[in-house]
Fold this protein.
Amino acid sequence: MSTSADIDVAFARDDLVLRLASAAYLARFSGTSRVHCSSDLRLYLGWCIDRQTSPLAMNRAEVERYVGWMREVRRFKPATVARRMAVVTGFYRTCVIDGVLEHSPAEYVRRPRVSNESPTLGLSHLQFEALLSAARDSANRFDFALVVMLGMLGLRIFEACSTDIADVGEEHGHRVLRVVGKVPRSC
C-alpha cells in the first residue's frame, strides 16, 4: 500500500494544505489511474496558480471559467473536458469529506454531455484489409491467424490468446470456437 509520501504532489507548490489535500485525493487511486488523475489535477492546479488564485479559495464561477478555458483555449473534446472535470469535482468532494472545505465549488458546474456510445466502432474495411495483408506477409505465421480471429470473430486480445485447440468444435455442420468472454471481477 502506498503512502502519501509516495504520491508526487510537487505541482501543489508550497501550500501544505493543498499538498495534503491533493495527496489525500490521489491516494484513492493506484497505477495508471493515479497517473492520469494526477495529470488532470496538475493541469487544474496550474491553471489556478497561473491566475494567482488558490485552488482552495475558488468559487463556482471560477471553476466554470476553467471549463470554458479547456473548451475554447485548449480546444479539448467534450469527453476530455468531462473527464478532467470529474477529477476536479472528486478533488473538491474529498476536500469537503476531509473538512478542508465547507462546500465544493465544483458541485453545480456544468459539464459537456458525452454519449456512452463510442464514436469509433472499429477498423474500417479498408483498414482491416491492410492489417490482414500486413499479417499475411509477416514472418511469424501466427500473426495472420491472430488478426483473423480478432477481426473476423470480433474477439478481444485476451480471448484470442486464451483459446486452445480443445475450444474448436463443430455445431450444425459449422466449425465453431468456444470463447469465454469478459468475466466481471468480484469486489
